[in-house]
Design goal:
The protein has 280 residues and is an all-alpha fold. The protein contains 17 helices and no strands. It is globular, with a radius of gyration of 22 Å. The chain starts with a helix and ends in a 7-residue tail after the last helix.
Length: 280
Amino acid sequence: MAVIQYNNKEYAKSLSNSKKALKYNKVQAPIYLQIGKSFFMTGDYDSSAYYLDRAIIFGANSENDFYYLASAENKRHNHERAISQINKSIKSNTSNADYYMVRGDANFGLDDFEAAKVDYEKALSLNQNNNSIYKSLANVYIKLGNSEKAIENIDIGINNAQGDEKINFLILKGNYYHQIGDLENAQKYFDEAFALNNQSAIVLTNQAAVLIDKGEFENAVEKCTQAINVDPTQTEAYFNRGIANEMLRKTDEACSDWEEAFIMGAVKAEEYLNSPTCNE
């Protein structure tokens, strides 16, 4: 039942039935595997790694088993262990693009960008239809300072993608231009993303960040407020709105926004809360 539910993307139900199975048999690797995979799909990567580890202890040793464990370890930022696990998958099967993507992500997380590039290029040679590879290559070329190759891969992604995937590539391109201080091009690509989805909190927040840098603070506040209305957990929107409100001399509103951002986990907001602005 758990396997069928997992295949139907009913991950919570799959997890529930897998746990029931574990009550009756605590030494079967497939049960631990199913729990670990279900936890992975529900976003609980710590639990996923724990149960996948248990599965391997009880005999799971397929390339796919190591792939799931490596993916969970990457999500936990345990990149060295991710590499050790995914290398077992690659040893069994050298023609699976997903395995090289996982190792590339691990190398990227370890700041070994040259190794990450090699893995992403290998993945691309095996599967040119996976747009996420172009995104990963773009990110690694940005880190390596090769703007031409970064833009080339982003543009391929934009041309191939549809819907939310296209929006993500437009955001990536906008972020690239924002990072190098080209505000006009940054705004251009964020606006293109906004035209595809005017209810994306991430797009709205990025638009606000550019507007702040351009000195258009009232428009930035409006964009941040729209983002928060769409997604009240958008921490960056609170933080950016705080900056815009400060520039508009709305001190109480600014400090309130930074306090909310800090409560939600934005460590950088603490500096603003401790500044003279919020302690006069």
